[in-house]
Specification:
alpha/beta, 8-stranded parallel β-barrel, about 20% strand
């Protein structure tokens, strides 16, 4: 088990639930826009948010962002140790730095001192593309990433600072999985995991699910970010779905739909997409601990019997309509044109009946 850190009240590592992070794509100097996005991320289920701190103006804006944010705010700093110090002074819940690119040990010590006084953790981020070429040529990418991160962590620990999180991210799945497994075997520092530079939603979700899922199923990883070339809210929704898929999270709404085939009695593809879109707009505050399963089945073969665990669902009845069922029990029939409205309405009723 890893050691535990506290990020603005959110625990990471030490047996705490795996948490979901994302990063704002707004200009941090635009406080209103950044807070608006943070609030959307919070509503989507994000638990920790990171913002870029590229200059002094952004570091000063951080104070107002932290004050108005419903989430712990992590300051992402590169090259300038003074920005990391100022971000910590302005209330950042965690500071993300690469000690290797912010200068001398004296400068690193300044950051450590400020964070230590305020009990602010430091995340050391190692990306495959930023590791020194000479180190890669000598050890190979995976070992070079590992050595880089562990050496930087040792620098902080030698200064008496142990409130650390590590991340090792490459742009491909095999390297990411391998280096994180190596890290988990070498250190008890909690790991922030993810695959970087994955691309747009379709490709990015596949690569992230393969990499993050493999690690989580092997017991590696304490907090995650699904990095996508997409609005950050999509990262959060993908991360939550991933955690549910590997059995580490419950709650919310799960849509089950069968693959399309010649047996389908109605347009499953269109109905499933419309239902998912409508349900994604519902608040899941009343079902944080319970999952509401909604099934859209295309034929009698995959009908109420196979989807008997669904809380509510539909399947063709063979007479041009669809049967509505709950937990495998048929409740009545609906016209195809009414399926989406009926399923959304029934789901809403189920959610209103749940307590957190």
């Amino acid at each position: 088990m890893t050691r535990q850190i506290n990020v603005g009240g959110v625990l990471i590592g030490g047996g705490a639930p795996v948490t979901v992070q994302s990063m704002c794509d707004t200009d941090t100097r635009d406080v209103e826009a950044t807070l608006a996005q943070i609030k959307r991320l919070h509503a989507a289920g994000c638990e920790i948010v990171r913002v870029a701190v590229p200059d002094t103006e952004a570091a000063e804006a951080l104070a107002r962002i932290v004050k108005g944010s419903p989430l712990p705010v992590v300051a992402d700093v590169h090259f300038d140790h003074k920005l990391a110090v100022r971000a910590a002074e302005n209330g950042a819940a965690k500071v993300r730095v690469n000690p290797g690119n912010i200068g001398s040990k004296e400068r690193v010590r300044e950051v450590v001192k400020t964070c230590s006084e305020r009990k602010i953790p430091i995340r050391i981020g190692v990306n495959g593309g930023s590791v020194k070429r000479g180190l890669i040529e000598k050890h190979g990418l995976r070992e070079a990433m590992l050595l880089s991160g562990l050496e930087q962590a040792a620098t902080l620990e030698d200064m008496g600072f142990t409130d650390i999180c590590l991340s090792f991210k490459a742009s491909n799945v095999p390297d990411t999985v391998a280096v994180n497994r190596l890290a988990a075997a070498k250190t008890d520092i909690p790991l922030h995991i993810g695959v970087t530079e994955t691309g747009t939603s379709y490709q990015g979700i596949i690569k992230s699910s393969a990499g993050i899922g493999a690690l989580l199923l092997g017991g590696v990883g304490d907090t995650i970010r699904v990095s996508l070339t997409a609005p950050p809210e999509e990262e959060v929704r993908a991360a939550l779905a991933l955690l549910k898929a590997v059995g580490l999270r419950k709650g919310g709404i799960e849509v089950i739909s069968c693959p399309t085939c010649a047996r389908k009695g109605f347009d499953v593809y269109t109905v499933a997409n419309q239902v998912e879109k409508r349900l994604s707009q519902l608040s899941t505050v009343n079902c944080q601990l319970s999952t509401v399963k909604v099934a859209i089945m295309g034929c009698a073969v995959n009908g109420p019997g196979e989807a008997r665990e669904a809380d509510v669902g539909v399947a063709p009845d063979g007479n041009g309509q669809a049967v509505l069922f709950r937990k495998g029990e048929v409740m009545g029939s609906v016209n195809e044109a009414e399926i989406v409205d009926v399923l959304v309405g029934e789901t809403r009723k189920l959610m209103e009946g749940l307590t957190t």
